[in-house]
Write a structure and sequence with these properties.
Elements (H helix, E strand, L loop, with lengths): L2 H57 L6 H16 L9 H25 L3 H4 L2 H36 L3 H8 L26
Helix pairs in contact: 1-2, 1-5, 1-6, 2-3
Length: about 200
């Protein structure tokens, strides 16, 4: 055998071994992203499942603002209509999903804020329990989104780093989108303690 052929075989063997390792690492990280995405979906579904009970409880108060309830119902319908599988997690799709979820979160916040004007509603045990469950769910959503972003960031770094990027391109491993802070989070809330002079 010629020396050139031996060098070629050695290089091809090294490249093949590293390629298998690289491919398997990408598969592992992609699977991890899938796992964390399912946890995000589970928490958002939990929130969506609580909303009909909350709306029914609030509807029991005859003079409660109907437009506020309608806005929650419509936002829930919009948020639950967007279904993304783990292989559809492009930055654009994540933004659409997040926008629908942010709209629902805003509607829920308005509902809970308006409910402060109805002492008989706040006094009901069912409303208090639902409000506590929603607060707990919002915390779980934040944790699930953080975990997902961590897994997706690790995956994205792997997909973009050399020489993994060669194998990622060959085998179709695309970058995943991340959750970002909503535009409303950029504005600090106004605090007024009624101490105007």
């Amino acid at each position: 055998m010629s020396r050139g052929l031996i060098i070629f075989i050695v290089v091809a063997a090294i490249f093949g071994m590293y390629g298998c390792s690289s491919y398997n690492g990408l598969v592992d990280k992609d699977t991890n992203v899938d796992k964390y995405w399912s946890q995000v979906q589970t928490q958002y579904q939990r929130r969506a499942d609580l909303i009909p009970n909350l709306v029914r409880t609030v509807q029991g108060v005859a003079d409660f603002e109907k437009s506020t309830l309608q806005s929650v119902i419509e936002a829930r319908a919009s948020a639950t209509s967007i279904k993304l599988s783990a292989d559809q997690l492009t930055p654009e799709n994540i933004q659409k999903f997040q926008a629908a979820q942010d709209q629902l979160g805003g509607s829920l916040s308005r509902l809970l804020a308006v409910s402060e004007n109805y002492p008989q509603l706040r006094a009901t045990q069912n409303f208090s329990e639902l409000q506590a469950q929603l607060e707990g769910t919002e915390n779980r959503i934040a944790v699930a989104r953080n975990d997902f972003n961590g897994a997706a960031t690790e995956y994205n770094k792997s997909v973009r780093s050399f020489p993994n990027n060669i194998f990622a391109g060959i085998f179709g491993f695309a970058r995943k989108g991340l959750f970002e802070a909503s535009a409303a989070a950029q504005n600090a809330p106004t605090v007024d303690f009624g101490t105007k002079k």
